[in-house]
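Retry 2 of 3 after timeout on previous attempt. Resubmitting structure tokens to design endpoint.
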């Protein structure tokens, strides 16, 4: 399939154009991303899927400004990331992005509330009180704000991490296998939250997952293979995602 660069859109929360990422040189050279062009519309939930080693994490990290591409461009809203120095990039990440990690990444000595508000406090900002309450309520943590991470279940800790990512009202929230460390019930709750953040709070979410059931919570699934976007699905069901993945397996065995 040929991928054409998407036409510039006013509604994109983030986009990559001709984004490549090469690791190493000579015999150890790996092309992790091979001229990827993709855009993520505002107030939409997109899942990125693909086999292990297909470039999912690299793409997410480049989009989130945690890593830089070797060629091409990444934009968050109207800001082109390659034009920013490291300090500007850190500021943009703090102000315009939220990130949910597989391993929660909460500070153990802080309460749930302190963990949620910490990134804004570091930036010298203060969360809008009403928005903070809305986020805390929507993630179902109202009675748990004084608890430390060790006093919370895995699912509750990830809900704190989701609230932390949402509280600054970022342009876009990135989630890297956010349900990878959760049992299926807690996982479904966290996915429901991300989906609710998009539907009810108008947030934009981009999530890497290898789980078709998780991807089915998204509005759209983008498939990567060998550092390229090979396909996408809208309004996915778990069955349709699984079927698409099987097709890749067959294609890679016969190629
Ligand atoms: P995925 O998230 O789909 O599993 P990754 O983005 O982690 O894929 O990796 C894509 C490719 O880039 C893989 O071949 C991987 O081995 C390689 N890669 C990722 N990070 C590095 C790195 N820091 N140094 C060298 N190669 C890397």
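Retry 2 succeeded. Sequence:
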């Amino acid at each position: 399939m040929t991928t054409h660069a998407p036409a510039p859109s006013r509604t994109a929360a983030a986009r990559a154009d001709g984004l490549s990422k090469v690791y190493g040189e000579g015999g150890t050279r790996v092309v992790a991303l091979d001229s990827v062009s993709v855009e993520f519309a505002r107030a939409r939930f997109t899942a990125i899927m693909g086999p292990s080693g297909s470039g999912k994490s690299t793409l997410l990290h480049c989009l989130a400004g945690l890593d830089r591409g070797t060629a091409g461009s990444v934009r968050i809203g109207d800001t082109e990331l390659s034009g920013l120095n490291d300090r500007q990039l850190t500021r943009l990440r703090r102000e315009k992005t939220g990130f949910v990690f597989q391993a929660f990444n909460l500070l153990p000595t802080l309460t749930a509330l302190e963990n949620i508000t910490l990134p804004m406090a570091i930036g010298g900002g203060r969360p809008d009180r009403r928005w903070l309450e809305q986020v805390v309520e929507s993630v179902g943590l109202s009675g748990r704000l004084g608890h430390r991470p060790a006093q919370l279940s895995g699912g509750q800790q990830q809900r704190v991490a989701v609230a932390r990512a949402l509280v600054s009202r970022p342009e876009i929230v990135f989630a890297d296998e956010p349900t990878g460390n959760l049992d299926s019930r807690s996982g479904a709750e966290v996915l429901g939250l991300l989906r609710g953040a998009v539907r009810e709070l108008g947030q934009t979410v981009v999530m890497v997952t290898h789980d078709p059931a998780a991807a089915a919570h998204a509005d759209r699934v983008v498939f990567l293979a060998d550092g390229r976007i090979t396909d996408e699905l809208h309004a996915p069901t778990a069955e349709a995602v699984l079927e698409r993945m099987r097709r890749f397996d067959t294609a890679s065995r016969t190629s």
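Attempt log closed. The CA atoms of residues 22 and 143 lie 47 Å apart.
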